[in-house]
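Bench notes, afternoon.
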Amino acid sequence: MKQIGDNTPDLLGKDQNGNELRRSDFPGRKIALYFYPKDMTSGCTAEACSMRDNYAQLQNEGMQVIGVSTDSEARHQKFIEKYELPFPLIADVDHKLADEFGVWGEKSMYGKKYMGMFRTTFIISPEGTVERVFGPKEIKTKIHAEQILAAKD
């Protein structure tokens, strides 16, 4: 998993509209790049709505929110429309970005093992280095944006 001080790629992936999304598209801004397992599920919806509800404050603090899951562009569009999300979602269908950040791996539910996304948020500096990592056990989906705001310094 990427650690504090690690460099991040400029090209992040394609958003819900099929457009390439780059870190350099947000000059002078930090990026809260949050990886989550799946659109329309309870925890992921709570996390996205926390980001939505605190989006103006995050933006005022110089931060751009970008969500990432392996869902398709079309599914992301539905998720954005249903919950009125004001930030882009990357369709990492081949989990390339998740692999690069080290958040794709074996998970287990009810004794069944499968590959999936570990809920993780990286705060990336305007220069492109990781400043803070929120791991799966640390993230509280309903108040995650508040966690980010509280840790901004």
